[in-house]
């Protein structure tokens, strides 16, 4: 089909109409290449973050202070693996197979959330990660349930339900510590001091330095800007910190009557950029561990592939056999389903 330069192709017109309608784009719909590329990058980075994000917490499963804490933490880390799987599946519907996405992570070409390059030093960090990191994830992800790309939005619905449980368990760990001995309270405060800044940076750079956000918002992938979401998060955690009896490490944090929001201080964006570039305190360790896990899992992938192959061969053989029987058997012996043409 040919069309002049200023005419809009019908498939683009259809796509634009769906977006203008706040409707959903599904895998079989035509979509602009840039939309497909942006989503593939965003969803796969999100998936990588879930998988790498298992590491700082998995580290504490064997050292959890009680059987109850251990089983809760184990369930939480398993949830994160599940989030990774839903998201890889969702990304694959855009046409890039999972081994390719995985390879992008393992070769360092794909990024994941910078927060997971920080160490989890004490048990209280399990509390701070749940409360602040999963809390920031919820603020970011609830609006993504309405993302224009169907498989992404639907994956986010279930993920968000699990994230709210994660945040709650983190808050509860911190509550118990902050109402415990002086040493426990100190440990809780120290964890919050270390995770507060990096958690606020999870929303990405300030709007002025986030040139791609506008396009993502125009496509109804993103619903709010980085700074809007960060503000929402700050407003949410200030009263929660008060309830915990802990302070947030920002002397500029103050209620602004006029704006009806909390003002907060400038974040360390140089540190953020340096962590993004792979110079975070645990960047090397996280990637090394991920590569090892991938190599150690090779036999599982091989076994799964061999099993799938055998199942497919059996199914083909059974179908063959059935065809043969259908051809030769008298009509009274054919399976009922075939007689009615199902
Ligand atoms: Fe998650
Ligand atoms: Fe989570």
UniProtKB/TrEMBL annotation:
One of its GO terms (cellular component) is cytosol. The keyword Oxidoreductase applies. Residues 311-342 are annotated as: Disordered. GO terms for biological process: phenylacetate catabolic process. GO terms for molecular function: phenylacetyl-CoA 1,2-epoxidase activity. Its EC number is 1.14.13.149. Gene3D superfamilies: 1.20.1260.10. It is an enzyme of class 1 (oxidoreductase). Keywords: Oxidoreductase. It comes from the Bacteria. It holds the Pfam family PaaA_PaaC. InterPro entries: Aromatic_CoA_ox/epox, Ferritin-like, Ferritin-like_SF, PaaA, PaaA_PaaC. This is 1,2-phenylacetyl-CoA epoxidase subunit A. It comes from Rothia koreensis.
